[in-house]
Design brief:
- The complex is a heterotrimer of chains A (345), B (230) and C (509).
- With 230 residues, chain B is an alpha/beta fold.
- Chain B has helices at residues 38-46, 88-93, 104-116, 132-146, 162-176, 190-196, 214-219, 223-229; strands at residues 2-11, 14-22, 27-31, 49-50, 53-58, 61-62, 73-76, 150-154, 182-187, 199-204, 207-208, 212-213.
- Chain B contains 8 helices and 12 strands.
- In chain B, strand 5 and strand 6 (61-62) form a beta hairpin.
- In chain B, helix 4 (132-146) packs parallel to helix 5 (162-176).
- Chain C is built from 22 helices and 1 strand.
- The chains are: A alpha/beta (345), B alpha/beta (230), C mainly alpha (509).
- At the A-C interface, helix 1, helix 2, helix 3, strand 2 and helix 5 of A face helix 5, helix 10, helix 11, helix 16 and helix 21 of C.
């Protein structure tokens, strides 16, 4: 099947700039914008928005890494995982990023096609329910997709049971959101031949399809739906940050599709040593211990102190589902058509 | 001399031709039916319209290259002679300094003009706070201050009552005419012409007849004038 | 043919503004198309999106206009205490960021909202806001205020003498005066709202209920983000432009009379004032429809105010600066274009309505990226793009006023020999304070809530208030996000109100 992604054409910066009347203007902008010239080396990590927000892992990780690296760690935040990849594709080989952090398994195949990444070279025992041996992309956290509902309400025990029920759910659009794409893969992996039927039966349960996770979760909390597509770890947020144990994730018999979030080193980086240092740091305690209560995901390497109190209350799926990046890319368009047709009826 | 040399102005299906000379230092009345081209002629003299053929000459100089503001011409229109958001003294001061940054000397000149048109004490009012007659005086004041040799009046007093109108006409004659300006005044009313005009011109059927002394103009009316006066 | 020899205003700023608009709209589209590898044409799903887009835009614009007519009529002929405040407040939904408005609409029409609670209490079946009708409902909520305002201005522009004449002839006011006015005003209003709905994105995505409700703008988003298919994205953006041009061409034939800029405080004395109850009922119903969701945004947001982290306030300051700069730039561009005048200028003024915000953002990114890290230019680009996208509204308000000044005072200015800049400074600026204030307010408010280009450009240090709100939602902080939404609502409306009021300062125009 054709994958509608292709490497970017090489862009000849010099050719374009030589003849540009904008050059002096832009150079002026650049001088103004860059301000003081940094003496310390700068490591630029391109990631998704919520990672760098005040409540995300970014600030703590920046502080911890800068303590040891003698460098300035700068985050470039841009939308969600899919936006991150799109930005990377726009920038091509001239990207200033040294590390890209926040792609997931569904985006890896497309990311690999850009030929922008170098092997990570990190050898560490990962605490993932599956084996991981990708030479370029190194996981930093992971989770299971799950429907999150209210404690005490009717809780289905499978995707099929959910489709047969009258329960109202809100999901994300697979074309604009990583959880949405995850559900698409979940259904396709659990029901390889009858995914279209399952979607047809699910259609009347779906209140609406939102562009991103935030909108969907907001609608659920507002009471617009009985459940929302999120992660098994979502109840941990309510329990730990809000001392609210009313949210539960539903365990499904078909198993749960996984999201593995990864980072990779940009091959053309001007800070290769720092980048390697960061990737090693990424799977160390200092980074991993921040993840559970800021990104609300499982750390890729469980830190020495174990998981925070509250995580032990979360459901643990018996079966972890995950397609290889190549398989995921191969079935994506078929799965999407099934989804679109079923929900357009 | 203000000369219209084979002047042709075309607008849609309307065509006006004029080939006449107006004597300097005279007050001339332009009389004729509505739509005959009186205002069009003034617009061409003032530079608002560029003619399709012919020239406008003042003292032997072709005015064509000059934009309206640089012609030796001041104009008062039927309405909108004052900017409503500016005070009377500002409106008059525009004649000296379009930037409105007047020197002390220039401000004094504005004060004198205000006094001479009978608006002393009203300098800081805005036009809306003035009566119709006072607004006309302000417009006259500005023309006075601009001090250009040719003045075009396009029925500026048509909306005033008869008494007030006569007062304004007299003001035109004593203040503007006395200084030797060449004044062209469009009017519908023969009485206006008889009151102040030295000569009169008939505009009709797209043609402008040569100026005739006002007395003669009305005593020996042309057939077209007879038809117009009814 | 004799030429009009008076060209009194400076012309190069208009050319510069037009060039900027063209670069940011057509230029960005070209940049995206240039980088594209053309793979395939439009898919059946794209065609479905085009059909859906047109249908919902037609219905939304039609309903907005139909509802606006009786309300505008009631407001035009009744006077009551608080009328002027009511008219100003009624503008609020149009100024709201989509995310904020959706919160309010859900609180009223959602599953646990007021309407359904009421229906349940009465033992009636509940309604759902999600689906085609939800999209239309939201679009009407956003655009009804604009329709009311524009049509009301049409009504107030009918000279009082004509009502007097009609009364003395005992002629039907409706057929003699109001119908001709509506016929000249309504097509333009319909067009503007149709164009706004045509490029709708977040509303359809959140309330649409599924892939059926895919708009062209959403398809562009997916082409850019999901498939990284720049070719299809630019093709879809061309389709969007094409639709807008077609709509504009049709409406142009029906004649367009702009009336924005007429004062709204005027109440024309009328002699056909039976049935006051119907008028007041209409006003009350629409006010309830428009204000209840706003009230709910406030109600839900107040508890969240205490939870707002410090950097949300920093983001708010940044948003205020961006919005002020956009407003200044926008009115400067609108003024420059208005002074230049002409058909071409009018067309340039409408183009941003048809532009896809996503393509503009992506194209600007591609253009800027040739030279400099886009993160350094996040705020300047946001200002530029926001100013351009708000330009059609500001130009509509200002253009009309400038034309009027030209008509009434052009000759006086020319005969006084005012220089081009003196003309602008002494005559034009003081006389267009009101539409200038209105246009600046609109641009400021629209820019305040914008979440378009900033997402693609912003780095760590440039988050604006809408982005901060979005990030709060992304971090499970829904209550704090509601607080941020309230701040956004207050700031947007305050920006509009301050500019609009400053424009009204001088009464003797």
């Amino acid at each position: 099947m054709a994958i509608p992604l292709s490497p970017n054409p090489p862009v000849h910066l010099e050719d374009r700039m030589q003849h540009s009347i904008y050059l002096p203007l832009v150079a002026g902008f650049a001088l103004c914008a860059s301000g003081t010239v940094a003496q310390t080396p700068v490591l630029q990590v391109m990631t998704y928005d919520s990672f760098v927000s005040e409540w995300g892992p970014g600030p703590a990780i920046e502080a911890a890494f800068e303590e040891t690296c003698g460098c300035d760690l700068q985050f470039i935040g841009t939308g969600d995982g899919a936006a991150l990849l799109a930005r990377l594709q726009l920038e091509g080989p001239r990207t200033e990023a040294d590390i890209v952090l926040g792609l997931d398994t569904n985006l890896i195949a497309a990311a690999r096609e850009t030929d922008l990444f170098a092997p990570h070279g990190v050898d560490v025992a990962l605490d993932l329910p599956i084996t991981w041996d990708d030479p370029d992309f190194l996981p930093f956290d992971w989770g299971y997709f799950a429907f999150v509902g209210n404690e005490g309400a009717e809780a289905p025990t499978s995707l099929r049971a959910l489709a047969d029920s009258d329960i109202r759910i809100v999901i994300q659009d697979p074309r604009s959101s990583t959880p949405g794409l995850g559900l698409l893969m979940w259904v396709k992996t659990a029901y390889p031949d009858t995914a279209a039927d399952l979607w047809a039966d699910l259609a009347d349960n779906i209140v609406t399809v939102t562009p991103g996770w935030s909108e969907a979760y907001g609608l659920f909390l507002e009471g617009e739906a009985d459940a929302v597509l999120s992660y098994t770890t979502s109840p941990a947020y309510h329990l730990i940050a809000e001392e609210d144990d009313s949210k539960v994730a539903w365990a499904f018999e078909e198993g749960h599709y996984m999201q593995v979030e990864v980072a990779a080193k940009v091959a053309g980086t001007d800070q290769p040593e720092l980048a390697d240092q960061f990737l090693a740091f990424m799977v160390s305690d200092a980074f991993q211990s921040v993840i559970p209560t800021t990104n609300w995901m499982y750390p890729a390497v469980v830190p020495e102190g174990g998981l925070p109190a509250g995580f032990e209350t979360l459901i643990v799926p018996e079966t972890a589902l995950l397609l290889s990046p190549e398989d995921a890319a191969a079935i994506r368009d078929v799965a999407l058509d099934e989804w679109r047709n079923a929900l357009s009826q | 001399m203000l000369i219209c040399d084979n002047l042709v102005i075309e607008q849609d299906d309307f065509r006006l031709t004029a080939d006449i000379a107006f004597g300097a230092g005279m007050i001339m009345a332009l009389i004729g039916p509505s739509g005959a081209g009186k205002s069009t002629l003034l617009a061409a003299l003032a530079g608002f319209l560029s003619p399709d053929a012919g020239r406008v000459l003042w003292q032997g100089r072709d005015l064509a290259p000059l934009p309206p503001g640089q012609r030796p011409v001041s104009a008062i229109f039927q309405d909108n002679n004052l900017f409503p958001h500016l005070t009377i003294s500002q409106n008059i001061g525009l004649a000296l300094r379009p930037s409105l940054r007047l020197s002390r000397h220039e401000r004094a000149a504005v004060g004198q003009v205000l006094e001479s048109v009978g608006l002393a004490g009203l300098a800081d009012r805005k036009p809306a706070a003035l009566s119709g007659g006072q607004q006309s005086r302000a417009a006259l004041g500005r023309v006075l201050l601009a001090d250009r040799p040719v003045v075009l009046l396009d029925e500026p007093f048509a909306a005033l009552g008869p008494g007030l109108k006569d007062e304004m006409l007299d003001l035109v004659k004593t203040k503007l005419g006395a200084a030797g300006r060449t004044i062209l005044m469009v009017t519908h009313d023969p009485a206006d012409a008889k009151r102040i005009a030295d000569q009169a011109v008939f505009v009709g059927d797209g043609r402008v007849t040569p100026p005739v002394a006002t007395q003669t103009f009305f005593d020996n009316p042309s057939p077209a004038l007879i038809a117009y006066l009814g | 043919m004799a030429q009009r020899a008076v060209a009194i205003a400076p012309r190069w700023p208009g050319a510069a503004a037009a060039a900027l608009v063209l670069v940011l709209t057509i230029g960005t589209l070209a940049a995206v198309g240039w980088r594209a590898e053309w793979q395939r044409g439009l898919s059946p799903a794209d065609w479905a999106a085009i059909r859906f887009t047109i249908t919902q835009a037609l219905v939304s614009a039609g309903l907005s206009v139909l509802l606006a007519i009786p309300v505008a009529r009631a407001l035009a002929r009744r006077r009551f205490r608080g009328r002027s405040a009511l008219i100003t407040l009624m503008g609020a939904p149009f100024l709201l960021p989509v995310v904020v408005a959706v919160i309010g609409l859900l609180a009223v029409f959602g599953r646990g909202g007021m309407v359904n609670s009421g229906l349940a209490w009465l033992g009636l079946p509940t309604i759902t806001i999600f689906g085609f009708h939800g999209v239309v409902l939201a679009h009407v909520f956003f655009n009804l205020p604009l329709a009311i305002r524009l049509i009301l201005q049409g009504w107030l522009a009918i000279p009082a003498e004509r009502f007097r004449l009609a009364a003395s002839l005992n002629a039907p006011v409706g057929r003699l005066l109001e119908w001709p006015m509506l016929r000249s005003v309504v097509p333009g209003v319909f067009l503007v709202i149709f164009l706004i709905c045509l490029t709708s994105f977040a509303v359809a995505l959140t309330l649409g209920g599924g892939p059926r409700a895919t708009t062209v703008e959403l398809a562009i988003y997916q082409a850019l983000r999901f498939d990284f298919d720049l070719g299809r994205a630019s093709l879809l953006a061309c389709v969007q432009f094409g639709l807008c041009v077609l709509a504009a061409a049709i409406v142009w034939r029906l004649s367009l009379v702009d009336t924005m800029g007429v004062g709204l405080d005027r109440v024309v004395q009328r002699w056909d004032l039976r049935w006051p109850v119907a008028d007041y009922l209409m006003i009350a119903l629409v006010a309830a429809f428009l204000f209840t969701p706003l009230a709910m945004v406030v109600w839900r947001g107040v508890p969240g105010l205490m939870l707002l982290p410090a950097d949300v306030w920093a983001a708010a300051v940044r948003s205020v600066i961006v919005s002020a700069a956009s407003a200044v730039l926008c009115v400067c561009m609108a003024l420059a274009l208005a002074l230049r005048g002409g058909t071409l200028t009018a067309i340039v003024g409408v183009i941003p309505l048809a532009a896809s915000g996503l393509v503009v953002g992506t194209g600007a990114f591609l253009l800027v990226y040739q030279f400099i890290n886009p993160a350094h230019l996040a705020l300047p680009i946001t200002i530029l793009v926001n100013a351009t996208l708000a330009l059609p509204f500001a130009l509509r308000a200002i253009g009309q006023a400038v034309d009027g000044i030209d008509r009434n005072f052009g000759r006086l200015g020319a005969s006084l020999g005012l220089s081009r800049w003196a003309w602008v400074r002494i005559v034009v600026l003081p006389r267009i304070r009101r539409p200038l204030g209105f246009g600046a307010g609109l641009a400021a408010a629209l820019s305040m809530g914008d979440l378009g280009v900033i997402t693609l450009f912003a780095g760590e240090a440039q988050q604006t208030l809408p982005l901060a709100m979005y990030r709060l939602m992304g971090a499970y902080r829904m209550e704090a996000a509601a607080g941020a939404a309230l701040v956004l609502l207050v700031l947007s409306f305050a920006a509009f109100w301050i500019c609009d009021q400053r424009g009204r300062g001088d009464a003797d125009l």
